[in-house]
Design brief:
ten-stranded antiparallel β-sheet; 2% helix
């Protein structure tokens, strides 16, 4: 089964999205996202490709997404970021996400970059009803001028790397 959808506007979970192109295929219990483009995703441009395999009891995801935005502070409410990242994931930038595995435990590679910072996360995300319920992985933050983000008398590149973890309801 092949089906293509093009929408001018969509209101979903109290959020409005515009200029949507969705091209996909469903065959042998595998849903393939050939193209999902949302030209106005909270003011940025979202592109998604990948597949979802429904052959087993738990679906297996292999999804890649990219979001380019002029002001990432406008999408914090959608991304549900840990507070420490909200000072880094701002301004004009690019977010790339690759996820694979079951919905309850997705292996992820998440990269954000803007003029001043790079944020990389590699690890697991635990989802419940498509919302982040927990995570465990390696976080690396690199910034060109930490003083622009927090009041810290240091100039030049600063690199921070750490294992991070959040458990359900904690």
């Amino acid at each position: 089964i092949n089906f293509d959808i093009q929408l001018e506007n969509l209101l979903l979970f109290k959020n409005k999205y515009s200029d949507i192109i969705f091209k996909n295929t469903y065959k042998n219990n595998i849903f393939i996202i050939d193209q999902l483009d949302i030209l106005d995703f909270a003011g940025g441009e979202l592109k998604v490709t990948g597949k979802i395999n429904y052959e087993n009891k738990d679906a297996i995801y292999d999804i890649s997404a990219g979001l380019d935005h002029k002001d990432f502070s406008e999408v914090h409410y959608i991304l549900d970021l840990p507070k420490v990242l909200e000072d880094f994931i701002i301004n004009e930038g690019s977010l790339k996400i690759s996820s694979s595995g079951s919905l309850s435990k997705l292996k992820n590679q998440i990269k954000f970059q803007n003029f001043n910072s790079k944020v990389n996360y590699t690890g697991l995300l635990e989802l419940d009803n498509y919302l982040i319920n927990g995570f465990k992985g390696n976080l690396e933050i690199s910034t060109n001028n930490l003083n622009d983000i927090i009041k810290f008398n240091e100039e030049g590149e600063t690199i921070f790397s750490s294992e991070i973890e959040k458990k359900k309801n904690i």
